[in-house]
Design brief:
It is a single chain. The protein is α+β, with helices and mostly antiparallel strands. The chain folds into 2 domains: 111 residues, no CATH class; 195 residues, Cathepsin B, Chain A (Alpha-Beta Complex). The chain contains 5 helices and 22 strands. Strands 12, 15, 16, 19, 20, 21 and 22 form a 7-stranded antiparallel β-sheet that branches. A 3-stranded antiparallel β-sheet has the order 1-2-3, with no helix packed on it. A 3-stranded antiparallel β-sheet has the order 6-7-8, with no helix packed on it. A hairpin with a 2-residue loop joins strand 2 and strand 3. It starts with 16 loop residues before the first strand and ends with a strand.
Protein backbone atom coordinates (compact mmCIF):
# COMPACT_ATOMS: atom_id res chain seq x y z
CA UNK A 1 0.00 0.00 0.00
CA UNK A 2 1.02 3.63 -0.39
CA UNK A 3 1.57 5.33 2.95
CA UNK A 4 1.03 9.08 2.96
CA UNK A 5 2.27 10.75 6.14
CA UNK A 6 2.16 14.34 7.32
CA UNK A 7 5.31 15.29 9.21
CA UNK A 8 4.47 17.42 12.29
CA UNK A 9 5.81 20.96 12.02
CA UNK A 10 6.59 21.43 15.71
CA UNK A 11 8.37 18.19 16.53
CA UNK A 12 11.54 18.44 18.57
CA UNK A 13 12.63 14.95 17.54
CA UNK A 14 14.68 14.63 14.40
CA UNK A 15 15.36 11.18 12.94
CA UNK A 16 18.15 10.20 10.56
CA UNK A 17 19.01 6.62 9.66
CA UNK A 18 21.70 4.43 8.20
CA UNK A 19 21.62 0.71 7.46
CA UNK A 20 24.83 -1.09 6.60
CA UNK A 21 26.61 1.03 3.99
CA UNK A 22 23.27 2.17 2.62
CA UNK A 23 22.87 5.81 3.69
CA UNK A 24 19.45 7.31 3.13
CA UNK A 25 17.61 10.39 4.31
CA UNK A 26 14.06 11.66 4.00
CA UNK A 27 14.18 15.43 3.69
CA UNK A 28 10.59 16.55 3.58
CA UNK A 29 10.01 14.99 0.20
CA UNK A 30 13.63 14.84 -0.88
CA UNK A 31 15.22 11.39 -0.80
CA UNK A 32 18.97 11.24 -1.16
CA UNK A 33 20.77 7.93 -1.22
CA UNK A 34 24.10 6.22 -1.70
CA UNK A 35 23.27 3.39 -4.06
CA UNK A 36 26.51 1.51 -3.51
CA UNK A 37 24.44 -1.24 -1.91
CA UNK A 38 20.75 -2.13 -1.61
CA UNK A 39 19.06 -4.16 1.10
CA UNK A 40 16.92 -7.21 0.52
CA UNK A 41 13.77 -6.74 2.58
CA UNK A 42 11.67 -9.74 1.69
CA UNK A 43 11.30 -12.79 -0.52
CA UNK A 44 8.56 -15.26 -1.36
CA UNK A 45 8.61 -18.42 -3.54
CA UNK A 46 6.51 -16.65 -6.17
CA UNK A 47 8.33 -13.35 -6.51
CA UNK A 48 11.94 -12.14 -6.66
CA UNK A 49 13.51 -10.39 -3.66
CA UNK A 50 12.27 -6.85 -3.17
CA UNK A 51 14.94 -4.17 -3.18
CA UNK A 52 14.69 -1.21 -0.81
CA UNK A 53 15.25 2.11 -2.56
CA UNK A 54 15.37 3.90 0.79
CA UNK A 55 14.70 3.27 4.45
CA UNK A 56 14.10 5.90 7.10
CA UNK A 57 12.38 6.55 10.39
CA UNK A 58 9.74 9.23 10.82
CA UNK A 59 8.61 10.69 14.14
CA UNK A 60 4.88 11.43 14.44
CA UNK A 61 4.53 12.25 18.13
CA UNK A 62 4.56 15.46 20.19
CA UNK A 63 7.57 17.71 20.66
CA UNK A 64 10.07 16.21 23.09
CA UNK A 65 12.08 17.91 25.81
CA UNK A 66 15.02 16.83 28.00
CA UNK A 67 13.96 14.35 30.68
CA UNK A 68 11.16 12.83 28.58
CA UNK A 69 11.20 9.42 26.89
CA UNK A 70 11.04 8.37 23.27
CA UNK A 71 8.07 6.11 22.50
CA UNK A 72 8.33 3.42 19.83
CA UNK A 73 4.63 3.90 19.03
CA UNK A 74 5.44 7.44 17.83
CA UNK A 75 7.88 6.17 15.19
CA UNK A 76 7.09 4.81 11.74
CA UNK A 77 9.88 2.84 10.09
CA UNK A 78 9.39 3.21 6.34
CA UNK A 79 10.81 1.45 3.30
CA UNK A 80 10.43 2.82 -0.22
CA UNK A 81 9.92 0.03 -2.76
CA UNK A 82 9.19 0.74 -6.43
CA UNK A 83 8.38 4.34 -5.57
CA UNK A 84 5.93 3.50 -2.75
CA UNK A 85 6.55 4.22 0.94
CA UNK A 86 5.56 1.20 3.05
CA UNK A 87 5.44 1.11 6.85
CA UNK A 88 7.44 -1.74 8.35
CA UNK A 89 5.62 -4.01 10.79
CA UNK A 90 6.57 -2.72 14.27
CA UNK A 91 6.68 -6.32 15.52
CA UNK A 92 9.76 -6.89 13.34
CA UNK A 93 11.99 -4.28 14.99
CA UNK A 94 12.86 -3.04 18.47
CA UNK A 95 13.99 0.35 19.74
CA UNK A 96 16.80 -0.03 22.26
CA UNK A 97 17.31 2.19 25.34
CA UNK A 98 13.86 3.75 25.06
CA UNK A 99 13.66 3.62 28.87
CA UNK A 100 16.53 6.12 29.16
CA UNK A 101 15.38 9.76 29.60
CA UNK A 102 16.38 12.13 26.81
CA UNK A 103 19.16 14.60 27.48
CA UNK A 104 19.44 18.06 25.96
CA UNK A 105 20.66 18.03 22.34
CA UNK A 106 21.31 14.84 20.39
CA UNK A 107 20.47 11.37 21.74
CA UNK A 108 21.41 8.21 19.86
CA UNK A 109 19.36 5.00 19.83
CA UNK A 110 19.61 1.76 17.91
CA UNK A 111 16.84 -0.05 16.05
CA UNK A 112 17.41 -3.78 15.60
CA UNK A 113 15.65 -6.06 13.13
CA UNK A 114 14.58 -9.65 13.79
CA UNK A 115 15.00 -10.88 10.21
CA UNK A 116 17.87 -8.69 8.99
CA UNK A 117 21.52 -8.64 9.94
CA UNK A 118 21.49 -4.86 10.13
CA UNK A 119 21.28 -2.06 12.64
CA UNK A 120 19.65 1.32 12.19
CA UNK A 121 20.93 4.35 14.12
CA UNK A 122 18.39 6.90 15.31
CA UNK A 123 19.38 10.42 16.33
CA UNK A 124 16.80 12.16 18.52
CA UNK A 125 17.20 15.89 19.12
CA UNK A 126 15.34 17.63 21.93
CA UNK A 127 14.64 21.35 22.09
CA UNK A 128 13.88 24.02 24.67
CA UNK A 129 13.10 26.69 22.08
CA UNK A 130 9.48 27.29 23.10
CA UNK A 131 10.53 28.52 26.54
CA UNK A 132 12.88 31.19 25.20
CA UNK A 133 11.43 34.66 24.58
CA UNK A 134 13.04 37.50 22.62
CA UNK A 135 12.92 41.18 23.72
CA UNK A 136 9.66 42.77 22.62
CA UNK A 137 11.34 45.78 21.03
CA UNK A 138 13.93 43.83 19.05
CA UNK A 139 12.48 44.72 15.63
CA UNK A 140 10.61 47.89 16.56
CA UNK A 141 7.19 46.22 16.81
CA UNK A 142 5.81 43.10 18.52
CA UNK A 143 4.66 41.47 15.28
CA UNK A 144 4.41 41.85 11.55
CA UNK A 145 2.68 39.80 8.84
CA UNK A 146 2.85 40.73 5.16
CA UNK A 147 -0.62 40.53 3.63
CA UNK A 148 -1.36 39.39 0.09
CA UNK A 149 0.90 36.32 0.13
CA UNK A 150 -0.54 33.31 -1.70
CA UNK A 151 1.23 30.18 -0.42
CA UNK A 152 2.02 27.43 -2.92
CA UNK A 153 2.79 23.75 -2.35
CA UNK A 154 5.73 22.24 -4.23
CA UNK A 155 4.17 18.79 -4.55
CA UNK A 156 3.06 16.88 -6.47
CA UNK A 157 4.59 18.50 -9.56
CA UNK A 158 7.89 19.68 -8.09
CA UNK A 159 8.96 17.18 -5.45
CA UNK A 160 12.27 18.92 -4.80
CA UNK A 161 11.37 22.37 -6.12
CA UNK A 162 11.17 24.41 -2.92
CA UNK A 163 13.55 27.07 -4.26
CA UNK A 164 11.69 27.80 -7.48
CA UNK A 165 8.32 27.63 -5.71
CA UNK A 166 9.52 30.23 -3.21
CA UNK A 167 10.52 32.46 -6.12
CA UNK A 168 7.10 31.93 -7.71
CA UNK A 169 5.36 33.10 -4.53
CA UNK A 170 7.55 36.21 -4.42
CA UNK A 171 6.77 37.10 -8.05
CA UNK A 172 3.05 36.43 -7.52
CA UNK A 173 3.10 38.79 -4.53
CA UNK A 174 3.99 41.65 -6.89
CA UNK A 175 1.10 40.75 -9.18
CA UNK A 176 2.97 38.81 -11.88
CA UNK A 177 1.35 35.53 -13.06
CA UNK A 178 4.45 33.39 -12.68
CA UNK A 179 3.78 29.64 -12.68
CA UNK A 180 5.95 27.31 -10.61
CA UNK A 181 6.19 24.61 -13.30
CA UNK A 182 6.93 27.13 -16.05
CA UNK A 183 9.69 28.66 -13.95
CA UNK A 184 11.12 25.21 -13.15
CA UNK A 185 11.07 24.07 -16.78
CA UNK A 186 12.06 27.27 -18.61
CA UNK A 187 13.86 29.64 -16.26
CA UNK A 188 15.81 27.40 -13.87
CA UNK A 189 19.32 26.30 -14.82
CA UNK A 190 19.68 22.55 -14.16
CA UNK A 191 22.40 19.92 -14.37
CA UNK A 192 22.91 16.20 -13.71
CA UNK A 193 23.50 15.06 -10.15
CA UNK A 194 27.22 14.93 -9.47
CA UNK A 195 28.11 17.04 -12.50
CA UNK A 196 27.00 20.55 -11.53
CA UNK A 197 27.76 23.03 -8.75
CA UNK A 198 24.62 23.89 -6.74
CA UNK A 199 25.71 27.55 -6.69
CA UNK A 200 25.52 27.55 -10.49
CA UNK A 201 22.54 25.30 -11.30
CA UNK A 202 19.90 23.08 -9.74
CA UNK A 203 21.33 19.63 -9.00
CA UNK A 204 18.99 17.27 -10.84
CA UNK A 205 15.46 18.26 -11.82
CA UNK A 206 12.90 19.65 -9.34
CA UNK A 207 10.28 17.32 -10.83
CA UNK A 208 12.24 14.33 -9.45
CA UNK A 209 12.15 13.29 -5.79
CA UNK A 210 15.71 11.97 -6.07
CA UNK A 211 17.14 15.39 -6.93
CA UNK A 212 18.70 17.89 -4.54
CA UNK A 213 18.33 21.65 -5.04
CA UNK A 214 20.24 24.88 -5.54
CA UNK A 215 21.57 27.91 -3.69
CA UNK A 216 20.83 31.62 -3.82
CA UNK A 217 22.81 32.62 -6.98
CA UNK A 218 20.78 30.17 -9.08
CA UNK A 219 17.47 31.66 -7.93
CA UNK A 220 18.70 35.21 -8.56
CA UNK A 221 19.59 34.14 -12.09
CA UNK A 222 16.15 32.53 -12.61
CA UNK A 223 14.44 35.65 -11.27
CA UNK A 224 16.40 37.93 -13.59
CA UNK A 225 15.54 35.74 -16.59
CA UNK A 226 11.84 36.02 -15.77
CA UNK A 227 12.06 39.76 -15.11
CA UNK A 228 13.84 40.41 -18.41
CA UNK A 229 11.69 38.18 -20.61
CA UNK A 230 8.43 39.47 -19.16
CA UNK A 231 9.41 43.16 -18.84
CA UNK A 232 8.72 43.19 -15.11
CA UNK A 233 9.34 46.36 -13.12
CA UNK A 234 11.29 44.34 -10.58
CA UNK A 235 14.85 43.54 -9.60
CA UNK A 236 16.37 40.51 -7.88
CA UNK A 237 19.19 40.81 -5.37
CA UNK A 238 21.30 38.27 -3.51
CA UNK A 239 21.42 39.52 0.09
CA UNK A 240 23.08 36.40 1.51
CA UNK A 241 24.99 37.10 4.69
CA UNK A 242 22.32 39.45 6.04
CA UNK A 243 21.46 38.82 9.68
CA UNK A 244 17.91 37.63 10.35
CA UNK A 245 17.21 40.68 12.54
CA UNK A 246 18.18 42.96 9.65
CA UNK A 247 15.94 41.04 7.22
CA UNK A 248 13.02 41.60 9.59
CA UNK A 249 13.67 45.29 10.14
CA UNK A 250 14.73 46.27 6.63
CA UNK A 251 12.44 44.10 4.50
CA UNK A 252 9.61 42.41 6.39
CA UNK A 253 8.70 45.62 8.24
CA UNK A 254 8.48 47.30 4.82
CA UNK A 255 6.21 44.61 3.32
CA UNK A 256 8.97 42.98 1.28
CA UNK A 257 8.99 39.15 1.55
CA UNK A 258 12.40 37.47 1.45
CA UNK A 259 13.38 34.07 0.03
CA UNK A 260 15.52 32.32 2.64
CA UNK A 261 17.30 28.97 3.02
CA UNK A 262 17.14 26.69 6.04
CA UNK A 263 16.24 23.06 6.64
CA UNK A 264 13.02 21.12 6.09
CA UNK A 265 10.76 21.64 9.12
CA UNK A 266 13.76 23.24 10.85
CA UNK A 267 15.24 19.80 11.43
CA UNK A 268 18.83 19.32 12.46
CA UNK A 269 21.01 19.02 9.37
CA UNK A 270 24.37 17.68 8.32
CA UNK A 271 26.77 17.67 5.39
CA UNK A 272 26.03 14.63 3.24
CA UNK A 273 26.77 13.90 -0.43
CA UNK A 274 30.14 14.90 -1.87
CA UNK A 275 30.68 15.54 -5.59
CA UNK A 276 33.82 16.46 -7.49
CA UNK A 277 32.77 19.29 -9.80
CA UNK A 278 34.81 21.89 -11.68
CA UNK A 279 38.05 20.60 -10.19
CA UNK A 280 36.93 20.77 -6.55
CA UNK A 281 34.91 18.82 -4.00
CA UNK A 282 31.54 20.27 -3.03
CA UNK A 283 29.27 18.88 -0.32
CA UNK A 284 25.50 19.03 -0.03
CA UNK A 285 23.76 20.04 3.21
CA UNK A 286 20.83 17.80 4.16
CA UNK A 287 17.89 18.52 4.56
CA UNK A 288 18.28 21.81 2.67
CA UNK A 289 15.04 23.74 2.23
CA UNK A 290 13.91 27.10 0.86
CA UNK A 291 10.94 29.22 2.02
CA UNK A 292 9.46 32.70 1.67
CA UNK A 293 9.82 34.67 4.91
CA UNK A 294 6.67 36.77 5.41
CA UNK A 295 6.38 37.75 9.06
CA UNK A 296 7.29 37.40 12.72
CA UNK A 297 5.79 37.65 16.19
CA UNK A 298 8.26 38.87 18.80
CA UNK A 299 5.97 38.20 21.75
CA UNK A 300 5.58 34.55 20.70
CA UNK A 301 9.19 34.46 19.47
CA UNK A 302 8.20 32.97 16.10
CA UNK A 303 9.07 33.45 12.44
CA UNK A 304 6.37 33.03 9.78
CA UNK A 305 7.13 31.57 6.36
CA UNK A 306 5.14 30.50 3.32
CA UNK A 307 6.46 26.94 3.33
CA UNK A 308 6.35 25.03 0.00
CA UNK A 309 6.31 21.73 1.89
CA UNK A 310 2.95 22.60 3.44
CA UNK A 311 1.43 25.08 0.99
CA UNK A 312 0.48 27.43 3.81
CA UNK A 313 1.92 29.90 6.34
CA UNK A 314 3.92 28.05 9.00
CA UNK A 315 5.36 29.44 12.24
CA UNK A 316 8.71 28.25 13.59
CA UNK A 317 10.48 29.15 16.87
CA UNK A 318 12.65 32.14 16.03
CA UNK A 319 15.83 30.96 17.75
CA UNK A 320 15.63 27.59 16.04
CA UNK A 321 14.84 29.16 12.67
CA UNK A 322 17.79 31.56 13.02
CA UNK A 323 20.09 28.61 13.77
CA UNK A 324 18.99 26.74 10.66
CA UNK A 325 19.28 29.91 8.56
CA UNK A 326 22.88 30.30 9.73
CA UNK A 327 23.64 26.63 9.02
CA UNK A 328 22.63 27.19 5.39
CA UNK A 329 25.12 30.08 5.21
CA UNK A 330 22.54 32.87 5.74
CA UNK A 331 21.36 32.64 2.16
CA UNK A 332 18.66 35.09 1.17
CA UNK A 333 17.21 36.59 -2.02
CA UNK A 334 14.93 39.59 -2.26
CA UNK A 335 12.68 40.73 -5.11
CA UNK A 336 11.84 44.44 -5.04
CA UNK A 337 10.24 46.96 -7.36
CA UNK A 338 12.67 48.65 -9.73
CA UNK A 339 13.39 52.30 -9.01
Amino acid sequence: MKYNAVIPVATGLILAVSIGVLMLNKDGGKVQENTAQTAEVGETPTQPPLKAESIYAEYKGPQLYPGEFINKDDIDLKVRINGDDMVANPDLWTLESSDVPLSEGENKFNIRFEDMDAELTVIAETTTEETTMAPAAQNGSPSKMISGIKPLRQTPELATGCEIVSLTMALNYYGYPADKCDLADNYLDKGPVGEVDFTKAFVGNPRSDTSFGCYAPVIVNSANKYIERNNCALKAENISGTELSDILSQYINNDIPVIVWGTAYCRAGHLSRIWHVDGKDIQWYTPEHCMLLVGYDTEKNTISVADPLEGCIVDYPRNLFETRYAELYKQAVVITTAE
